[in-house]
Amino acid sequence: MSRPNGQAPRHAAHFGGSGQAPHTPQARQRTSGTTRPASRMRPQAAPGRRAGSTGAVGARSALGSTGVSSRTAQATRRAGSGNVRKRGKQGRASALPLVIGGIVAAAAVIGLVVLLVIPRLTGSASSDGDKQQITAGQVVEVTIPDGSGASAIAQALYDAGVIESKSDFLNQVRRTNSELGLKSGTYSLVTGDSLDNIIQLLSRGPNSTAATLTIPEGFTVAKVASAVESQFGISAEDFTAQAKASNYVADYPFLAAAKNDSLEGYLFPKTYDFSGKDVTSDLVIRTMLSQWQTEMAGIDFDAAIASLKSRFQMDFTQEDILTVASIVERETNSDDDRATVASVFYNRLAVGMPLQSDATTAYYKGGDFSAADLKDDNEWNTYTRTGLTPTPICSPGLASIQAACNPEDTSYYYFFISGDYHAFSETYEQHQQAIDARPQ
Predict the structure, then answer these.
(1) Lower CB count within 10 Å: N or C terminus of the chain?
(2) Best mean pLDDT range from 143-152, 208-217, 249-258
(3) What whole-number distance in Å separates Cα of residue 353 and Cα of residue 350?
(4) What is the average per-residue pLDDT within 100-108?
(5) Which of 303, 302, 335 is nearest to 403 (CA)?
(6) 144: which strand partners?
(7) What would the pLDDT profile of 205-253 be if each residue is shown by its tens digit?
(8) Which residue ranges does UniProt annotate as crossing the membrane (predicted)?
(9) The listed CATH number (3.50.50.60, 3.30.1050.10, 3.30.1490.480, 3.40.50.2000) that belongs to domain 139-204
(10) Measuring CA to CA, how many Å separate 309 from each of 183, 258, 304, 306, 313?
(11) Residue 289 near residue 242, CB atoms below 8 Å
């Protein structure tokens, strides 16, 4: 079976505050509790007489001679009545500063709420010191950490020189009701761009590739290491030294079945975003193993193993299925062919035929190989050896794994794939005819 070796990658109060009333003049001390002048104080009533009576016979004084006339009594009452009214005016005059002070205090409290409390509740920024001069037209990288709200995003954009004013940005976010749609991640932004454009970019999600790592289907551990070195400057040698199953089996029990202490087949192909993180070999490996675990949650390997045993009368392990999937990944270029190609390999395994996959020799050689290499007997050469290779030969995608779990039911033992041309055959003669019939 043959196929071009290369495969194109697919692909957030008290008044005044003191507790004291305002100062008012003290009232004059009075000696009797009345407001009558001392010279007109009414004498004490005689026993049996009602005090303060103004009958025809005037009451006598304590000296027994001086009477109080009704005119005098009326004048006295008028004087007392006048003093009572005077006290009423003084009471209202004393209350006036309290009323004015209360209004001033209320206004002060309202002002504090407007200046301090409301901006904190709404996330708006004060205009004082909010403006800055920026150089427009420059492309900058800005990382928005996970969980950032609008205020934190505004600060990040302001610090990076993308926006002139935090408050203007926040006001536009509120006007467009966009706060809940702003996403974290790393962005390539143009300084001085319109607020609407910036908000739209933040709503669509990260657009920078500065912190992303893309691993296509079919990458080996060595190729992953090279990609990590190219993207993050981490030594490929350090990465491959770290990429051992024994380093991670305690946290990822599925690695207990891994052979040769290899993570081959388990670094799941995907685009990863490491924005805002300190990228290390360990972080990349753990992220990819976690993704493999997540993707495999929908695969019932036990059911697949039982089905394969029933169909081909052979015992398979999860590692075996992953190995078949990895060879399928390297031998096909179309999802439509995967289950059919998988059936060819299982049919050959069932009758003891060598798989004769060029891809396994390419893995052993690390790339291109010659016709002579196909005669070099080694455990990766499926022309000279029967059975599966010691480990998977790459990290297969989900489609290839599904095909290996449930291959098509066929009688094919041969296939030929070249570009858009593919042919499946039951006999070697048919296979040769298919090769001869390929478009030139």
Answers:
(1) C
(2) 249-258
(3) 8
(4) 61
(5) 335
(6) 185
(7) 888 778 899 999 999 999 999 999 999 999 999 999 999 999 999 999 9
(8) 95-118
(9) 3.30.1490.480
(10) 48, 21, 9, 5, 5
(11) no
Percent of the chain with pLDDT over 70: 71
Tokens representing residue 207 in the block: 């657009």
Single pTM value for the model: 0.63
Tokens of 380: 């990766």
Q: What number of other Cβ atoms are within 10 A of residue 208's Cβ?
A: 18
H or E segment to which residue 186 belongs: strand 185-190
Give me the half-sphere count of Cα atoms (radius 13 Å) on the Cβ side of residue 134.
22
Note whether 418 and 6 are within 8 A (CB). no
What residue ranges do the domains of the chain occupy?
A: 139-204, 217-296, 301-436
Give the position of tokens 């008012």.
Answer: 24
Report the candidate in 23, 2, 12 with the shortest Cα–Cα distance to residue 96.
23
Q: How many residues does the structure list for the chain?
A: 440
Taking CB atoms within 8 Å and a gap of at least 24, the contacts of 129-133 are: 130/165, 130/166, 130/167, 130/168, 131/164, 131/165, 132/158, 132/161, 132/164, 132/165, 133/164
